Amino acid sequence: MMMKRKLLGALLAATLWAPVAQATATAKEKAEAASSVDGQAKQIQVMVDQVFSFAEPGFQEVRTSAYLQEQLEKAGFKITKGVAGIPTAFTATWGEGGPLIALGSDIDNLLGVSQYPGIPNIKPMVAGAPGHGEGHNSGMPLIVAAAIATKTVMEKNHIPGRLMIWPGVAEELLATKAYYVRAGLFKGVDACIFVHVSNDFTTAYGELGNNGMVSVEYTFHGKTAHAAADPWDGRSALDAVEIMDSAWNFRREHLPVTQRSHYVITNGGGQPNVVPDKASVWYYFRDRTFGAVKDLYNTGNEIADAAAKATGTTVDRHVLGYAAPNFGNKPLAEAAYANIKTVGMPKWDADDQAFAKAVQETNHRKVEPLRSTPSPLSTPENRERSLGGGSDDIGDIMWTVPTITIRYPSNIPNMIGHNVLAAMAMATPIAHKGAVVGAKAVAMTVLDMMTTPKLLADAKTYFHDVQLKTDTYAPLIGDTPPAIWLNEKTMKEYRPEMEKFYYDPSKYPTYLDQLGIKWPTTKPIP
User: Fold this and answer.
1) pTM for this one?
2) Which has the closest alpha carbon to 501: 40, 55, 48, 16?
3) What is the number of H-type helices and E-type strands within the chain?
4) pLDDT tens, 262-281?
């Protein structure tokens, strides 16, 4: 009887502890993924440079989107175009059975920051045109390479699973990911990895300390009149905009210290001698929590209504975008960080370091070498207390499925974000090498997810039992459509000149070669 009990106990223990699949992807499989990425290094360079040269802002990423779709389709992915009612959005899917893992990064750029890459001084390629002053041109090339590497290893080793690649459209407008979620793009997805350009190499979990945001445009309607002969017959919509802006700025004194709010007047009327019957102002309201963002939005609405009453006008509002606060998944972040440490930083050479130093010195930034080791895993315990700041609409996906952001080292330390300085390295070996190591870490982490049921189970447990206990996802987009008309006029104006600078990889090894820029250029070029 005792022997039977011991045998039964041993069998039960073996059943309970037997792995359903490998504990993690094997070292051999990860080495195969890294080798595949290395084999794509030239194509990564071409993709990074090509997207940089297109330089398309939010909702107008026409060439960029088509180009990335082409790369994925060639690699055997099935493309679905125009998802969520957004022409430049798409999904690229592959695989069958097993987990469904989503991979994404942003593809848009910023207005007015056109900049020659590979030189240390400010010099626009097309004055006033958009440019990659955030570095989004490197993210999707990284993801494409990681997806191809993952697919190659899964096919070779008969690993079941599915991949869904997606681009972040109009992230600088914070204008699409909430619409992706609303359209059900992430239904059935088990986990998501997002990547963002940086000068370090790390990831994070928990409440990440940035702000959620709602983007809203207020349009006031008044009555025209001759501004000199009979202004008393007019009702100025521009007066209402100015009153709203003044009132908001007075209100700032009594708002939480974590809030950030800013605006631009998008329509101030036609000419001075006509009382404007229509004027618009566009606001971003940001704060740390869903409730705080909603409070700011409600306050903005109240002030807009008061400004309309004060001027005898009417007002309507249109939500143009939304971003949830960011919250990273702990099990996924820990798994990704183990791979980040395995991959390590790029092997920077003397030319890379010389260019980084020249950019910093020329632009009076703190001089700091390109980093040699990954940054520590960012946790709630080692992060400084946040008083608010920027936003990223990856938060909407983070509150939908377990998600992390991996920061990869494709830029120079101590640059200014959303600025020409952040564009200077983004089509150079620094950007290329950073994308290569980032792609390796992503591919390795996806393989861990595909081969480790417990990792995904733990990620889902953390998502439900920890994250969803802190707050409730509450986007403010309602049933409004995506603002796909934004930046259309800008690109109609600038695209003809910008097309002259599109990269032609059939003729030039790199974009710097096409531009006649020697690497590394360490002296300013007039």
Assistant:
1) 0.94
2) 55
3) 16, 12
4) 999 999 999 999 999 999 99
